[in-house]
Specification:
By secondary structure, this protein is an alpha+beta fold. It is 20% helix and 44% strand. The protein has 2 helices and 10 strands; from the N terminus they run ββαβαβββββββ. Strand 8 and strand 9 form a beta hairpin.
Length: 101
């Protein structure tokens, strides 16, 4: 389960420790960095998993900001661990999926 931390001004949600533990194992074995730059946007609905016509999937923030093709998606608790050619991304499992051009 994702961790929720309350500060005086806001509530922040973080990936679960189980998810992060799996990410660390993958990062060490595959020599890839763990990226969290799509985490917050996956929670607030401003990023998505885009599916191209040929079935290729990408993490997308906007038409100028997207990842290399996704090679594997793993679900841990309420998060997805998304593997691309060069990186490991952690996003909320509530992230939308949409066809893109």
């Amino acid at each position: 389960m994702s961790a929720i931390v309350k500060s005086s001004d806001s509530v922040e949600t973080f990936p679960s420790s189980t998810c992060l533990s799996h990410c660390v194992k993958l990062a060490i074995s595959d020599d890839r960095p763990i990226m969290l730059d799509y985490w917050q946007s996956s929670l607030d609905g401003t990023s998505l998993i885009g599916v191209r016509e040929g079935g290729e999937k990408l993490l997308v923030k906007n038409e100028d900001e997207y990842t290399s093709p996704i090679s594997k998606i793993l679900k841990v608790d309420k998060e997805y661990i998304i593997l691309t050619e060069n990186s490991i991304y952690v996003v909320s499992s509530s992230i939308a999926t949409k066809r893109i051009g």
